[in-house]
Specification:
single chain, alpha+beta, Heat Shock Protein 90, five-stranded antiparallel β-sheet, 4 helices, 34% helix, 26% strand
Length: 148
């Protein structure tokens, strides 16, 4: 029999510094779930980067807007959604070109997206069709498949 996911929600202001609240909450949940220290550190970095992207790019540093962090825990994974009021990322930004960035051929901004993709098992950027904002969906699995 499957267990219904446990969901926790955190509403934060659009202000730099509050990404620490989001990353520490995600770390606490991941530790309770039994993730290793290294995986918790990876999650903290990914959540922090996604939260900073939400306030800078999504909410354009508008302190009248907020960011909602939702965590959904299941037996095998933790999903973190970071929702802002912006239009979302452009399709071409989904896969940062790290080689071009390292060679200085591309704007160094966007490294956060590369880090997020490297640190979690799944990442998805979703724009709400009704103009209701957008979110980054990050997932880490308790027992990820071993990569060869």
């Amino acid at each position: 029999m499957s267990q219904a996911p446990i969901i926790t929600e955190l509403r934060l202001p659009t202000r730099l510094g509050f990404e620490k609240v989001a990353m520490n909450m995600a770390a606490s949940v991941a530790e309770i779930m039994g993730f290793s220290h290294d995986r918790v550190d990876d999650l903290k970095t990914a959540v922090s980067e996604a939260r900073i992207n939400a306030i800078e790019h999504g909410n354009q540093l508008n302190e009248e807007l907020g960011v909602v962090v939702t965590m959904s825990m299941s037996l095998e994974s933790l999903e973190v959604k970071i929702r802002d009021n912006g239009p979302g990322v452009q399709e071409e930004m989904h896969v940062p070109d790290i080689d071009r960035k390292m060679l200085g051929e591309e704007d160094p901004r966007g490294m956060g997206m590369f880090l997020i993709q490297a640190l979690v098992d799944e990442v998805e950027y979703v724009s709400e069709q009704s103009g209701g904002g957008s979110y980054a969906r990050l997932v880490i699995h308790l027992h990820p498949e071993k990569k060869v």
